[in-house]
Amino acid sequence: MIGLSTAAEVRAAEVRAAEDVLLARTREGALMRRAATGLATVCLRRLGRAHGVRVTVLVGGGNNGGDALFAGAHLAARGARVTAVLLDPGRAHPAGLAALRRAGGRVTGPEGPDGLDRADLVLDGIVGIGGRGGLRPAAAALAERAATGPGLTVAVDVPSGVDADTGAVEGAAFPVLHTVTFGAVKPGLVVGDGRGYAGTVHLVDIGLGPHLAPPRAHQLTDADVAAHLQPPEPGDDKYSRGVVGVVAGSATYPGAAVLCTGAALRTRAGLVRYAGTAGDGVRAAWPEAIVTDGRPADAGRVQAWVAGPGMGTDDDARSVLAEVLATDLPVVVDADALTMAAREPALVRGRDAPTVLTPHDREFERFGVPVDADRVGSARRLAAELGAVVLLKGDATVVAAPDGTAYVNATGTSELATAGTGDVLAGILGALLATGTPAAETAAAAAHLHGRTGQLAAERGPLIAGDLVRRLPETVGRVREPGTGGLRDSEA
Ligand SMILES: NC(=O)C1=CN([C@@H]2O[C@H](COP(=O)(O)OP(=O)(O)OC[C@H]3O[C@@H](n4cnc5c(N)ncnc54)[C@H](O)[C@@H]3O)[C@@H](O)[C@H]2O)[C@@H](O)CC1
Ligand SMILES: [K+]
After folding, report:
1. Which residues contact 45 (CB under 8 A, 6 or more apart)?
2. Atom from ligand 1 closest to the CA of residue 171
3. Rounded Cα–Cα distance for residues 370 and 364 (Å)
4. Closest ligand 1 atom, residue 91 Cα
5. Binding-site residues from annotation for K(+)
6. pLDDT (tens digit per residue) in 38-76
7. Interface pTM (ipTM) of the complex?
8. Ligand 1 binding residues, C-beta < 6 A
9. Is the CATH number 3.30.310.50 carried by domain 222-480?
10. Model confidence at 182: pLDDT above 80
């Protein structure tokens, strides 16, 4: 599990690490030196060489600029032609500046160098976790020139202009190909608009680990998700592996029921029971499922329900949903069930058993307040208000529990933006919940597996939802293979 730490949490850890300095366990300036060395190492690995490489370092007036200057000094010492552009010359990090000069680097004022758009590498050390709002005009102009040039762009800690905590981008920001972040991954690098600005995220360990508070937000790795996908053991039978109940689809629209039931079957369910008016379609597609044309109570015993995809929102649908929500079982509330729950939140609010709501932005808004630029915060608010787990779909799907624990999914792909993929996610989620694991982490595991399946299916070209169902067993197999990571192309 990868912890996502806010700027305040990182700063608090830095203070505790500084106390270590006083106790002489860590040398003063060690954190910045470790950060700069890690940053230079990632750059060198990407460039493949240093000698003669043209490097421009954009330097703000804080420690982020300090990191960039020390990294520039490393590169200059290895023969790179480094120019530092000081956006706030009076406040540039003195020791960093001295190191750069000693290593043979050049320094210019904020007007910038002539060759910015010809640089092989541009380091964005304008602002890091101390940044507020969009970039000021001078920095914004330089960032724009650098971003349009052919060179490699690397953000120091955080792409400047991106809110490290939320991923919100409130004005100009610097979109980069790589972000080298220090001590802990910040949420804003992996969620919301910030995700698109950060490119590939590399985590450099600077020794903050022992000082960091336990994070409230996480990213799951394949290894974490594998724990939810263990193969059956010798003593297992179809009941002990989890029995999922599905209420979805209708006689006119059986597709949602077929996809949802198929996804549950293909994920890991010992048994899937279907109750509803799309029974003929489900029987034809999945002879393995047990189908009733009656109500949920007629389906037999289940361990978790999935309610909503294609079920409609009329009085009959409402009474079926109410019946499922009145049980003491985990329930996934998806699609049409979300519309009904938004009309009547009391259906969800009073439950003791876990409820997982799976809205996209428009469905979320029906609960009263739209999703804002802080997607994790938005999901946390609704989760707390309803006492339910909220899985907010997006490029990077967010899961929040009522106590504020959150997860950001690392495996999303835009290929999943096609009809029926949500029905598949609901089925996967039902199958995993039926084993009784904690709801929020289970929802995050479902989003992870769904995304991985999308990535796998998209390798062969544009995907449709049925491809996900077909590729699920193979994805489960791959996720169970050890040694697979969570961050996009992480070098953590
Ligand atoms: N906290 C830590 O543990 C460590 C921090 N380090 C570095 O230090 C950084 C934090 O340093 P600081 O606290 O000095 O803060 P920053 O360097 O992130 O930013 C502060 C400076 O940016 C200016 N600024 C704020 N918003 C701006 C905007 N929108 N446009 C232009 N300028 C803006 C401020 O006026 C101030 O001069 C981290 O991101 C990281 O790079 C590292 O050296 C390693 C250790
Ligand atoms: K930066």
Report:
1. 491
2. 29
3. 7
4. 37
5. 64, 124, 160
6. 999 999 999 999 999 999 999 999 999 999 999 999 999
7. 0.97
8. 10-11, 14, 31-32, 35, 60-67, 91, 126-136, 139, 156-158, 182-183, 206
9. no
10. yes
